[in-house]
Prior knowledge:
236 residues; alpha+beta; Phosphorylase Kinase, domain 1; D-amino Acid Aminotransferase, Chain A, domain 1; 2 domains; 7-stranded antiparallel beta sheet; 5-stranded antiparallel beta sheet; 31% helix; globular; ATP binding; EC 6.3.2.6
Amino acid sequence: xxxxxLIYEGKGKKMYATDDANLLxxxxxxxxxxxxxxxxxxxxxxxxxxxxxxxxxxxxxxxxGIATHLxxxxxxxxxxxxxxxIVPIEVVVxxxxxxxxxxxLGLKEGMVLPFTLVEFYYKNDELNDPxxxxxxxxxxxxxxxxxxxxxxxxxxxxxxxxxxxxxEAKGLKLVDFKVEFGIDKDGNILLADEISPDSCRFWDxxxxxxxxxxxxxxxxGEVKVAYExxxxxxxx
Length: 236
């Protein structure tokens, strides 16, 4: 597979064209960003860890029937993925109150929610990725129909159900996570982007130690050590 020109660079990855019009190469970066990139940093080896973690989780989800864009892992930092049009909605799934949810609604951090909460955010850096309702999504044409939104919700809840049980068995709480979806050339909705400590909150089940990007957001430190621990537990 020939790696060609850079076609997109985001906060955590670079996307390259290939000699196949339907396939791209995703390269994971070592960069760290928080608060819509107002805080920036770098952790050597973070990209490789996220690649390994996301690859393993996507494989688990695929085995459970979740369609993803992942084709194969090419190197420590690269994946071959199906080309798809990214839906401009970040789907956030929450099991425990923390972060922006606690600040926005005054919920005590660590409160277990009475049910899994799914929220939509408009993927737009200039607007700081605002939370949006179903009607907002339809007014802005982010999706074609209410059915599409229900599909995104349904898949996100399925992902949560699978991963919550998986991480529970590994001694981790899946506090919340963000997923993105894409539409391939055949019109199929695929799980895209990544699932990693950059896009999830993981707490140790016994101590509530944070093992995710909050260590960077909150200046706790030892980001790489935390990511390594998540990978170790996934592979154990």
